[in-house]
Design a protein that fits this description.
The chain is of the alpha/beta class. It has one domain: Hexapeptide repeat proteins (UDP N-Acetylglucosamine Acyltransferase, domain 1). 17% of the residues lie in helices and 25% in strands. The strands form four sheets. A seven-stranded mixed β-sheet has the order 2-5-8-13-16-18-19. Strands 1-4-7-12-15 form a five-stranded parallel β-sheet, covered by helices on one side. It has a five-stranded parallel β-sheet with strand order 3-6-9-14-17, with no helix packed on it.
């Protein structure tokens, strides 16, 4: 007996583009209803609108308005913090940044969980701090989250990826383009994919 042809466009698309064997996950089963973003949907939408419109309009070298906006939406921002106008914060009420730290251009704080940055830290341009992931053993591709901490005096150089659950230790340096998939110890120069501690950080006298 011939299988009847479906009239639904999505079925035709699936039949025409299927590649390889059957998928082990069924994304129709994905459910994150348990996840608490920390604010009502209306507040989240308002923040996303403010960030999309107001942040890019603030002057590049004037960080006060951006600090004010983040604090208005619940972020804890210390004094003297530098935040470039292209930095992005998913949920600012889950973000804390200590005194005199810098956040560079195109940095993303994907803050499904807490992201804590200490004092005198540098998060260089195009870094992605990602508190969310998925369970690769779960057929429903379940959401996994974990906090990120960047401790005092640490530098995360340009283009790094920092995974959920990671702590970058005090005064550590993460080399450019590294993928930080586990916590890094204090006072170490670290780099690579995956990132590894390589040698102690030594400071010049004075």
């Amino acid at each position: 007996m011939t299988k009847p042809e479906s009239d639904r466009p999505e079925d035709k698309f699936t039949e025409s583009t299927g590649i390889g064997e059957s998928a082990w996950v069924d994304l129709r089963r994905y459910d994150q209803s348990w996840f608490d973003p920390g604010r009502p949907k209306a507040v989240i939408l308002l923040w996303w609108l403010v960030q999309a419109i107001a942040f890019p309009l603030t002057l590049h070298a004037h960080h006060g308005p951006r600090r004010w906006l983040l604090r208005l939406f619940g972020a804890r921002i210390g004094k003297g913090v530098v935040i470039r106008p292209t930095a992005r914060f998913t949920y600012p009420w889950k973000v804390s940044i200590g005194d005199y730290s810098w956040v560079g251009d195109d940095v993303v704080f994907y803050s499904l969980e807490a992201i804590t940055v200490g004092c005198h830290c540098v998060i260089s341009q195009q870094c992605y701090l990602c508190t969310g992931s998925h369970d690769v053993t779960d057929p429903a591709f379940g959401l996994k989250t974990g906090a990120i901490a960047i401790e005092n005096g640490a530098w995360v150089a340009a283009g790094c990826f920092v995974a959920n659950g990671v702590t970058v230790g005090t005064n550590a340096v993460i080399g450019a383009r590294s993928s930080v998939l586990r916590s890094m110890p204090a006072g170490q120069l670290c780099w690579g994919n995956p990132c590894q501690p390589r040698q102690p950080r030594k400071m010049a006298d004075g």
